[in-house]
Amino acid sequence: MQIDYNALNPAWGARKPVIIGFLCNWCSYNAADLAGTSRMSYPPTLRDIRIMCTGRLDPTFVIKALRDGADGVLVMGCHPGQCHYQEGNYKAMRRFALLRRTLAQLGVHPDRVQLAWASAAEAPNFVEAVTNITEAVARLGPLEWHDTVEDIAPRTPVPSMTEEVAHG
Amino acid sequence: MAENGKPKLALYWAASCGGCEISVLAIHEKILDVAEAFDIVFWPCVLDFKVKDVEALADNEIDVCLFNGAIRTDENEHMAHLLRRKSKVMVAYGSCAMEGCIPGLANFADREQMMQFIYHDSPSTANPDGIEPQTRTEVPEGELELPAFWNTVRTLDQVVPVDYYLPGCPPEAKWTIAAVEAILKNELPPPGSVIGMDVSVCDECPRERHEKKIKRFYRPQEIEPDPNLCLLEQGLFCAGIATRAGCGALCPGVNMGCRGCYGPVEGVRDGGARLISAIASVIDADTPEEIDAVLDTLPDPAGYFYRFGLAHSLLHRTRLAQANGHKVAEPFEEIPHLDPKLAE
């Protein structure tokens, strides 16, 4: 899928949005897999990290991703009532809500941090979620938190964000 | 060591309120032991030494420096570098030096916003001539100089290497004593250690605890809490669940939720993130609307979670964006709500 990021926000230049995805092992990670094997097309912006349950998602992970160079974070888990561990996704939803309110006060636009559900069979939900957050982040432009904390704090090295990411 | 064989001690205050200085004196008669055991070479709050006296010392001549206060001006930064160079052991004394504390809340704004509020907009300000502090001012007697004010407050260890941390706003006397005794006996923990406890405030809190499930948060003036029951269970914000113990749970002891001044527990990088995790876990709500309704009763979450640790948190401050050649703080004003679609 080709998106002209500079048409949405000229600040992108040669760079593309980098979105970190935290995907639940039991549902959305499989949905991502299914989207790939089904040869569905979606923006190549997501770098997915498999977690056993969205209930395992420590808000630190999201904050660290944003600080270390991500432009957005997508969290995906099982639909309510379908959590493999009974209620991990409810816990995730509560934490996500509070995290996003906190991040807003720190100047992280709420559209940069999104939560969505997809069962293992719902590849279209996964594609839709990636497309939605990519478009939102592309409009907002690069986050570049290292500009905010430049020379005020020792920071962990930021990997190159410009290389191509191989995706469906 | 001084000629009399005593180790040399320096104390300094940077961006702080002075409470840490008082807390050093709160060790009561032990202060005489300190005076007996150490040769105090610099303590601007109490003794008449000048910066040039410190500059005259050889590098590493000071055995221990207790440095309180955050770094927000070029003078703070200069003194941090100077004292680091002159000291063998540098202790970040108190929450400001350790994680920014209340001065670090300035990182929710930027320098211009702060000057605007403090010197113009605050309800208690009368400044008809619109005077603002300048780094240089001409007066008939000559030119006066004030330290330059940074956009962002930093912690001591973001400026110079720090050997030990004494948390607290201010540190409790028993830990100051423990640190002084450890220094005197040469039994200090490995460099980089926090002098204190590894567990959370709940471990020291005598209140009765059950499974926490709350339908709304209360502000302290809204309810009269049960004196024996966990405050968080009653809907009062308490940071004790994610805050390092060592204070003896002083605030919960007087019906006030823990503010979090001892910082995160051992091994935690971002105390605010852990508080988000812990506080969100006690909410008794399952749908997006219910969750938002509960959270609407907790105004200013970032202020609660990063009250003491903003300058040392992963994000460090509110985002700065370029505007008119200046970097300006850019919070998002609207409260984000959950997408109702998440209900299914």
Question: Could you describe the 3D structure shown?
Answer:
The complex is a heterodimer of chains A (168) and B (344). In chain A, 38% of the residues lie in helices and 14% in strands. Chain A contains 6 helices and 4 strands; from the N terminus they run αβαβαβαβαα. In chain A, strands 2-1-3-4 form a 4-stranded parallel sheet, with helices on both faces. In chain A, strand 1 (19-24), helix 2 (28-37) and strand 2 form a beta-alpha-beta unit. In chain A, helix 2 crosses helix 5. Chain A is globular, with a radius of gyration of 16 Å. Chain B has 344 residues and is of the alpha/beta class. Chain B has 3 domains: 8-102 and 152-184, 3-Layer(aba) Sandwich (Rossmann fold), CATH 3.40.50.700; 113-150, no CATH class; 201-312, no CATH class. In chain B, 26% of the residues lie in helices and 15% in strands. Chain B has a 5-stranded parallel sheet with strand order 2-1-3-5-9, with helices on both faces. A two-stranded antiparallel ribbon of chain B has the order 4-8. Chain B is globular and about 75 Å long. The mean pLDDT of chain B is 92. Chains A and B meet through helix 3, helix 4, strand 4 and helix 6 of A and helix 9, helix 10 and helix 11 of B.
